[in-house]
Design a protein that fits this description.
The complex is a heterodimer of chains A (72) and B (537). Chain A has 2 helices and no strands. By secondary structure, chain A is mainly alpha-helical. In chain A, helix 1 packs across helix 2. By secondary structure, chain B is mainly alpha-helical. Chain B is built from 19 helices and 6 strands. In chain B, 70% of the residues lie in helices and 5% in strands. Classes of the chains: A mainly alpha (72), B mainly alpha (537). The interface between A and B is large, with 31 and 50 residues. Chain A: Keywords: Membrane, Transmembrane, Transmembrane helix. Chain B: It is a multi-pass membrane protein.
Chain lengths: 72, 537
Amino acid sequence: MFAQFPSLLKLAGLGAALVIALLFAVFVGDQGPWYFAWVVGTVMIVLISATGAVLFEAQNNQDHDQNKETQP
Amino acid sequence: MDFINPHVVDLSRFQFAMTALYHFMFVPLTLGLTFLVAAIETVYVITGRRIYRDMAKFWGHLFAINFALGVATGLTMEFEFGTNWSMYSHFFGDMFGTPLAIEGLMAFFMESTFIGLMVFGWDRLSRPAHLAVTFLVAVGSNLSALWILIANAGMNVPTGTHFDPDTMRMQFDSFVELVFSEDAQAKFVHTSVAGYVCAAMLIMGISAFYLLRGRHRELALRSFRIATLFGLVSSVAVITLGDVLGRMDYAKQPTKIAAIEGLWHTSKPPYAPWAAFALPDDAKQENHLEIGVPFVLTPLITHSFDQPVTGMHELEDQAAPRIRSGIIAINALKRYGDSHSSTDLATFRAHEDDMGFGFLAMRHSPNQDTSAITEADLERVVKQTQPDILPNVFATFWAFRIMVALGGFFFIFFAFSTFFSLRNQLESNRWLLRIAVWAIPLPVMATEFGWVTAEAGRQPWTVFDRLPTFLSSSSHTVGYMTFSLIGFILLYSALIIAEFYLMFRYARRGPQDHTSHETPSTDPMLSGLHNAQGGRF
């Protein structure tokens, strides 16, 4: 049981972070809707642009594979 | 009461406008670059590809140069409130000082501490820890802007405050009301996201420069891809949030909106045209060469088809009773200062909301004393004060239009750039790359014009409807103001030369060579993604 303690602690920490995030969302969403929109929007902008880079790598790999296939 | 020399007021305004606009050249880039670097570093942490680490370091260094100049120019502005705007600081310092102090103590310290870790911590921190630091720098820099914009929102729409006739200053009632005021929220999100657009354009422009020169291709293509997506979503958001801000100003600052639209007479919905072009004449109070687009103004401002938008002539008419009431308030306040009589206090309280209009009337009163206004004089004073409630219409009208035109251009340009970047056709469309290089300064210009719209449109007030600008400055001499202005011009010119030299030198030199990184990804996640797609996208 004690061996699982670090995992349980991590789980509890993540659970606490989730509860705090929910409370934050409820409070800020109610009191400051545009602040909340900024938080969500900024995360979205960062993730969309990061996804663009991951897509770039995948396209790059595809081109590389095609080039290898066409080589004698 | 002796007035402050109007030349000193003009010089104080010019000095503050110059330093604010100069400082604001660096701020939007700082706000956006941090989150863009965080996006790049996120890719590094996810994929493990070293090129993204090099990209984050390279763009992070550009951010650091920009940040240093932003701090140096921002500090002087805070001192200016005390040196050049001491009347304003006395009147509104209780409220204005609080967010400024929080900015310095919380956000600025947080930002500065983590910048050290961000720049020097690459080999000392784990990848996730360094990413967390980069995000904390981004949040810290945006929190700095948040507190400044909360303070500015308090000037534009005073919230959570009341005037105390015993101390002759605005007293702070509610911190929560100030922080969560609609104006503060809308101002912050609009300004912050405008910064994202500036940063995206800078990275796209420098990347385009490398692609045109055939240098650092791997870094440039990836940077351009990330920045164009970052800019596209941000440009949509900044337009939407600008509309929100405009709607709020329509409710709280109708003179600003009427000036922005060059609207001298109340509009007749739904036909009311939106003036796409006009030459507003402040002296004659009319527009020359106006070209309007019908049926646009009403839905644009009111989000309806039946509500009229009040024009400046009608706003002047509405101000007349407030000016009369304000004169009563100022006279009662003066008597209360001498006598502390409850009758005078009650009279003041009954007319308190119009106090600012009484201050405006002082300029046209005999010996600048509202208590010397006779019944015969009253209507003359009111009539002369009425036009004073309006800002400079020409400056507000055109600053807004230039900002909006540039905002529209950014959206279109980001859309084209995203299209060609996603199809990997950037290098075959060199016209797009050339535009990207030349467009680097445009978003910064747009934010500057946005700032001019907001602040010129707030005139004639420093604290809207409460304290006129001509009563807000310090009682310096013209010689003192001229001397300090020359000092600022020399110092700031030296700083801008240093900034451009460092930025150009660093950008032209570019990052280390990335040809070694041009092999496809060996990262398990990307390989898995690639295989799952059958090698096709």
